[in-house]
Amino acid sequence: MLASLLPLSNSLGTASNQAETHPKLTWTQYTGKGAGQTVNGEIVLDSNWRWTHKDGTNCYDGNTWSSSLCPDPTTCSNNCNLDGADYPGTYGITTSGNQLKLGFVTHGSYSTNIGSRVYLLRDSKNYQMFKLKNKEFTFTVDDSKLPCGLNGAVYFVAMDEDGGTAKHSINKAGAQYGTGYCDAQCPHDMKFINGEANVLDWKPQSNDENSGNGRWGARCTEMDIWEANSRATAYTPHICTKTGLYRCEGTECGDSDTNRYGGVCDKDGCDFNSYRMGDKSFFGQGKTVDSSKPVTVVTQFITDNNQDSGKLTEIRRKYVQGGKVIDNSKVNIAGITAGNPITDTFCDEAKKAFGDNNDFEKKGGLSALGTQLEAGFVLVLSLWDDHSVNMLWLDSTYPTNASPGALGVERGDCAITSGVPADVESQSADASVTFSDIKFGPIDSTY
């Protein structure tokens, strides 16, 4: 018999069929070189993965909403509750000390789960906020069990610290239940945005039995620290012209190919992928940075005056592996200066060399990113496959119809036939990524 629901009404609430116990995850806050203090954090599963129901009756089943419980956004939110998560049993998520492991396919008692997305919490009801400007963020990752088509991602987004409860009274679940997600792609698959159900114009995705798209998108500025598998990696800033989570619809979301650059967010971003930038021997199995072994990744946010108050001018990358510090690869593409950080000049030159739309510059570039970073961003860690373009934008040749030899289209050595979710899910169900030893502090303090 199902346990009774918590006594909440007229809001997106929480249910108690499964206790919500956040896995513990420690990380280290530095004030200077060698001066680190352990922080006892927790992680929480995104609300989109959770069972959503009323007294045991599904509000959302497969990739469709209940027509009786969810005839409109407000009624649906008032009817429905987010339940707790069995992190290891249902979602393949485990922690130990400072280590987090995300499994890909998990066969639970009631369903099969694909991938996951979690956030770092400061306490049980608030996300940990990171102010990145003039700081560095460091972690260790093991990508050895991630084949073509998968993405073990570490990134920051401009979510609300409490998951949106203060701004939106209809949302009572908050950060404790992983609400409030947004990113620069303006995702339409979020079931609840600002606490309201995204049921309007909902269309199940034809190639994903668990997902669909509603009228609204949840957009915000995003800093991709690490998008990677064992074959390729990239780090990418994305700018949005509005701050925080903004619920978009129509042209503001930039959904169509003809309006991709007319929305409020820079969906392309300014990416640094070593393979794409001309060094095919830098990252991968047995390469300079060997993805068959754990590697420590250091990302630095440099300002013009080396102070928190300064203007963001560079994003630098270093790796530590086998006791050696390895600087990021240098660009080896005609028309792009042979440097290795992300700067506005690098972004401008890369966009021109590759024939890409420079929406990054139009949205304000690094200066605009730095301004938004001052508010603090939430840390996201995820493992996912790509039902849109099979992750080819990360690890293969993309677009696949580009002219042979065109600059910027080679992003990794995976075949253009790779990454089909049905294939990856059946052939690499046991794939996983392990993140550990998260560190945060002043420049050059954490490695």
TrEMBL record:
Gene3D superfamilies: Glycoside hydrolase, family 7, domain
Record protein name field: cellulose 1,4-beta-cellobiosidase (non-reducing end)
CDD domains (UniProt xref): GH7_CBH_EG (cd07999)
Family designation: Belongs to the glycosyl hydrolase 7 (cellulase C) family.
Coiled-coil boundaries: none
EC number: 3.2.1.91
Keywords, ordered alphabetically: Carbohydrate metabolism, Cellulose degradation, Glycosidase, Hydrolase, Polysaccharide degradation, Signal
InterPro entries assigned: ConA-like_dom_sf, Glyco_hydro_7, Glyco_hydro_7_sf
Species of provenance: uncultured symbiotic protist of Cryptocercus punctulatus
GO terms assigned for molecular function: cellulose 1,4-beta-cellobiosidase activity
Reactions the enzyme catalyzes: Hydrolysis of (1->4)-beta-D-glucosidic linkages in cellulose and cellotetraose, releasing cellobiose from the non-reducing ends of the chains
Taxonomic superkingdom: Eukaryota
GO biological process, one term: cellulose catabolic process
